[in-house]
Amino acid sequence: MSTDRLLRTEALSWMSDVDNVTGGQSQDLLLQPAWDYLLQNHYDLLRSPLFPVALSVTTYFFLVGGYTVLDLLAPTWPCINRFRLHPDRPITWPNIWTTLGVTIYNHLLYIFPASVAQWLWMPPTPLPHEAPTLLSFFLGILGCMVVFDFQYYLWHLIHHRVPWLYRTFHAVHHQYNQTFSLVTQYQSGWELFSVGFWATVDPILLQCHCLTTWGFMVFNVYVSTEDHCGYDFPWSMHNLVPFGLWGGAPKHDAHHQRPGTNFAPFFSHLDWLAGTHTVPNPSSHAAAGEPEEMKGRKD
Predict the structure, then answer these.
(1) What confidence tens digit (pLDDT) does each residue in 32-43 have?
(2) How far, in Å, CA of 183 to CA of 175, rounded?
(3) What angle do CA 6, 12, 18 make, to 5 degrees?
(4) At what angle do helices 134-161 and 189-205 cross, to 10 degrees?
(5) Which end of the chain is more exposed for a tag (fewer CB within 10 A), N or C?
(6) For the whole model, what pTM was predicted?
(7) Dihedral angle at the C-alpha atoms of 23, 29, 31, 36, nearest 10 degrees?
(8) CA–CA separation, 176 and 294 (whole Å)
(9) Could you tell me how far CA 291 lies from the centroid of its own chain?
């Protein structure tokens, strides 16, 4: 019997006898039934080194597809357009094709080869028998978000403060001073690698359960796309998190208008502490043309 089949048999056997082995403790784990189902029905898929990559990429294109449909409907649907940060500046097909082309190029040139290498050389993901507790699941995701936020804040700040780094690696992302969802991964290979590296390493550093890791990856993609979506919905994260602790789409859009502000990708506390925080206002959303700081750094 192969090692993979032996491990799977062991896992299924454990699940069938879990109440006898643990004395019913698994019933206290709210995520355990869902985890047992995943182990029983998708064991081989979940163990594949390609699964995290496929999960992130699928989530990204699903979200971007939804936002792009909204962008195309917005000019003729006032019920959608009223939530846009720039209701008088519609997203055009040339905007979509340009950003989508760079996104696909980056996936083919960087993500696909890295995925193949991961599939060839990384061992299968070990799947523990027990699911994480609900508390450790959410705390793990929160911890990864806080660490990632700090890492990208420093990266982002340095790549704006050092002109060579800005021109070489980050200026491409600022070619659009009006955000929309496809701008999320309209970036250089170096920036894409940096973001992907931290999203992969941070759950390992915090010793997260693999289910927590996958939850963080999905949530990270979701909030990154929402930051660039160009919409201010009532259910957006910045409207749900109190005290202005979350940046969200309006603050990141303000960063594209005024690139010397709002460097943190998610939370606001680092910008508050460093004096780089700014509050979006209607004039910044209505402003046309490219900010002077951005123009100077592209020369």
Answers:
(1) 999 999 999 999
(2) 9
(3) 130
(4) 150
(5) C
(6) 0.84
(7) -10
(8) 10
(9) 26
